[in-house]
Amino acid sequence: MASTHRSASDAAENKMSLRTKWAIGGFLAGGTLAGLLGAGSSALAVYFARRVITPAARHEDQEVLAVIRDDKGLQVILAATPDTTIDGVFSLFFAGGQGHARIGRIVSYSPAEQTVLREVEEVYSGNLAEARRGWWSGATYPDPSSIGLAAEDVEIEVDGGPAPAWLVRADASAPAPVWAIMVHGRGATRLEGLRAVRTARSLGLDSLLISYRNDGLAPSALDGRYGLGSTEWRDVEAAIEYALEHGAEEIVLFGWSMGGAISLQTADLSRHRHLIRALVLDAPVINWVNVMAHHAQMNRIPYTVGRYGQLMLGHPLGRRLTGLAAPVDLKTMDWEARAIELRTPTLLIHSVDDDYVPFGPSASLAEKNPEMVTFEPFNGARHTKEWNVDPERWERVVYAWLQRQLAPRNNPGQATAAGPADGAESAGGAGPAGVGPVGGVSGQTG
């Protein structure tokens, strides 16, 4: 019986290998029309696959039209885009990232002229008046001091050398027993986690805002490629070990976007996984195949071409073209399929209009594993900007849910997550006065 199963498995693997070899071979082949067509499709597949795993510089795609200073303060006129027309608190980075301004509420919006006038709450660096282009971001603050918090600059030893991190203590006199480790997303930095630090601190958690391979602060991987979570989790493992060596007894992982995929891998593979008390994931990648298929469709890439791109990432032969040091096993990171295997209480926060990482897999994971997973949908926040459009609600939901997870329990191995309708909104009032309000954060000038 086992022999029959093994034969079928080998045959399936050989079939997959032949399909992948054909795809890659098409790229290398030539001389016939079919070969040329295959080469064109495979070249596009290579390009698509490499885009997913290759770190790239941020593109200044946001136009700055004018800066106005009057008795009401500083305001900026921007070209109207799907991002700049969402009310809330955001960042505008300019001058190649050397300039940074915190952008506040919408003052006026002209659909006819395709312009939007917004308040400028703070300019942290650079001369905004000279800016002509920049990029929009949900990473609102430049450092812990800008939200009124002291931080220690620490280094975590990862593959390749030290990775810088910020450590924000809940109580300066002693380490907290539970630490929050903030894991940023693809193309982002540790700034992304600053939005969650005050909430963690209000719960008595020390916060470690980390860097990891290929993010511009930590040492780069030898291949210079993202592992989509399959390699980056080792840097989070190093951060957990740092926390444990400095007084932590348990860990809560916060993850944004790809940082969510990294956190899930850590909870699955870490030798300290029994010490991970909970996961708080914002717009996480639950299923990379779903995300890649979505982006292929958005970019009008034929289904078969997108599929070839996925095969190249996961097959040893694809390394020649993608530059990966090792294949990326997308199946092991498909938490829709592995839903029942997730045994760490998890809060998923995801906007239903997220056009970068679709929310469907988050909702599906919660539906398949309601014992462990709570899904909290937002609206109108796009990707990883749920806090930015409604910080009061975000902080209230996270505080109330984590408060339940951190409550003393008789048997640590039997913790369960509350259901999505288990009073998360109404329980938010239990938080301290410093948690949640926009004014409480954005009023800080650093």
Folded structure, characterized:
The chain is an alpha/beta fold and 446 residues long. The protein contains 12 helices and 14 strands. Strand 9, helix 3 and strand 10 form a beta-alpha-beta unit. Helix 1 crosses helix 2, helix 2 packs across helix 7 and helix 4 (233-245) packs across helix 5 (258-269). The radius of gyration is 23 Å and the shape is globular.
Short description:
Residues 426-446 have a biased composition (Gly residues). The protein is built from twelve helices and 14 strands. It has helices spanning 2-28, 33-53, 194-202, 233-245, 258-269, 288-298, 303-314, 319-322, 360-368, 386-389, 391-405, 438-442; strands at residues 62-70, 73-79, 90-94, 99-110, 115-125, 133-137, 152-158, 161-168, 178-183, 206-209, 250-256, 276-282, 346-351, 373-378.
Largest sheet: 8 strands, mixed
Task: List unreliable stretches of 5+ residues.
Answer: 1-37, 414-446
Cross-sheet strand order for the largest sheet: 7-8-10-9-11-12-13-14
> Count the helices. How many?
12
| CATH fold annotation of the largest domain | Rossmann fold
Name the shape in a single word: globular
Structural class per helix/strand content?
alpha/beta
Q: What is the average per-residue confidence, as pLDDT, rounded to a whole number?
A: 86
Cα-to-Cα separation, first versus last residue: 68 Å
The CATH homologous superfamily of the largest domain is termed Alpha/Beta hydrolase fold, catalytic domain
* Secondary structure: number of strands: 14
Helix content: 25-40%
How would you spell out the order of helices and strands?
HHEEEEEEEEEHEHEHEHHHEHEHHH
The oligomeric state is single chain
CATH class category name of the largest domain: Alpha Beta
Rg, rounded, reads 23 Å
Strand content: 15-25%
CATH structural architecture of the largest domain: 3-Layer(aba) Sandwich
Q: How many distinct folded domains?
A: 3
Organism: Arthrobacter bambusae
Biased composition (Low complexity): 412-425
Biased composition (Gly residues): 426-446
Domain Peptidase S9 prolyl oligopeptidase catalytic: 224-407
